Amino acid sequence: MRRIFIGTSGWVYNDWEKIFYPEDLRSKDKLKYFSEHFKTAEINYSFYHLPKPATYQNWYSKTPKDFVFAVKASRYISHIKRLKDVKEAWETFLKNALNLKEKLGPILLQLPPSFKYNSENLSRVKEFLAFATKIKNKRANLRLAIEVRHPSFKNPKFFDLLKKYKAVLVVSDSSDWIKIEKSKLADFVYVRMHGPKTMFSSKYSNEELEDLAQKIKKWQKQRLDIYCYFNNDVSGFAVENAKTLLKFCNK
């Protein structure tokens, strides 16, 4: 049976005080507390900053041996440089992230909404995947997941490119972006739940989560590992929804 990892995008939010975290819990103890409830987290901090090796080592030391981190690639790579001439930046980012050792799960690359499907951008994605895969081959368990925001990427040529390099298209659920679902591009599925009605600030219903649980069970039967992260952090919705989904998947 393949593995299921369900957690949240990040673990430090003011809205989670008292809702999830005990009132007297110190900031430095939040990750440890989080890891007592979930077996995975998606690191969003790495999108805005370049965490130092010591930061990754600290996260590693505060979590159990079976904990897994998904790491979001720097926006410098995806949004500023838009995948052009980013080999050095990628190598630096990945070198630091590798300090998570065996706890390093998929790397998430989120493309901006203005990044459309065309020959130039497809070429950039191809070039990126080509060198990222070479580095990846040195770490057999390193996985790449790409989240697109423009509907033009619903294109067989793009899917074929991902499959060639064993990367996956993120199953992204939100009120703002088109949902493109294409599994079986590699040996895992990556899901991001941004909020059903408003981005980051709406809660999924039990019906919606039950439907997702059935999909996860189907993917599991297809021998795919599943990584699912809730990004609707406002009012602690992400934590609540992640806990409910875990319960439904374990039924």
List keywords for this structure.
globular, 37% helix, alpha/beta, TIM Barrel, 251 residues
Write up what this structure looks like:
By secondary structure, this protein is α/β, with parallel strands linked by helices. It has a single domain (4-249), classed as TIM Barrel, CATH 3.20.20. 37% of the residues lie in helices and 18% in strands. The protein has helices at 30-35, 45-48, 53-61, 75-80, 87-97, 119-136, 156-164, 206-221, 237-249; strands at 4-9, 40-43, 68-72, 104-110, 144-147, 168-169, 171-174, 188-195, 225-230. The protein has a 9-stranded parallel β-sheet. The model has no long low-confidence stretch (mean pLDDT 93).
Topology diagram in text:
Layout (H helix, E strand, L loop, with lengths): L3 E6 L20 H6 L4 E4 L1 H4 L4 H9 L6 E5 L2 H6 L6 H11 L6 E7 L8 H18 L7 E4 L8 H9 L3 E2 L1 E4 L13 E8 L10 H16 L3 E6 L6 H13 L2
Parallel strand pairs: 1-2, 1-9, 2-3, 3-4, 4-5, 5-6, 7-8, 8-9
> What do we call the CATH topology?
TIM Barrel
Which structural class is indicated by helix and strand composition? Answer: alpha/beta
Compute the separation of the termini in Å: 15 Å
So what's the CATH class?
Answer: Alpha Beta
User: Which sequence of SSEs, written as H and E, runs from N to C?
Assistant: EHEHHEHHEHEHEEEHEH
Which stretches of 5+ consecutive residues score pLDDT under 50?
Answer: none
